[in-house]
Amino acid sequence: QVQFVESGGGLVQAGGSLRLSCAASGETFGLNPIGWYRQTPGVRREIIAAVSTGGGTNYAESAKGRFTISRDNAKKMVYLQMNNLKPEDTAVYYCNFLTPEPWGQGTQVTVSS
User: Fold this and answer.
1) Which residues contact 73 (CB under 8 A, 6 or more apart)?
2) Mean per-residue pLDDT of the chain
3) How far apart (Å, rounded) are the C-alpha atoms in residues 45 and 79?
4) Beta partners for 81?
5) Sheet strands (E) in the chain
6) Looking at residues 93-113, what average pLDDT do you find?
7) What percentage of the chain exceeds 70 in pLDDT?
8) pLDDT-derived band at 6, boundaries 50, 70, 90
């Protein structure tokens, strides 16, 4: 079973940047596409970026042009570079496979206006 540990969140002003990191355990990391998800209270968790095993990427419309997802299979790490942050990006951010395993604790991102 894979475990995910997210980090890198924090409080940032609108227009600022953050880089989220996700450390994964287990032997199947390199065999699966993986994504970054986010959730706000009362709202369903949504996927905002995904990266395939070969490095191909896809983004939700809200993330296009501002966020960049990447992975390092050797280190079992996934990253999300977030630029030009907006207050509506405020959420708890999680990483997981596209067929999710148990969720980690997430990392809180708060963007002030």
Assistant:
1) 29, 30, 53
2) 96
3) 18
4) 19, 68
5) 4-7, 10-13, 18-24, 34-39, 46-51, 57-59, 67-72, 77-82, 91-97, 107-112
6) 96
7) 100
8) very high
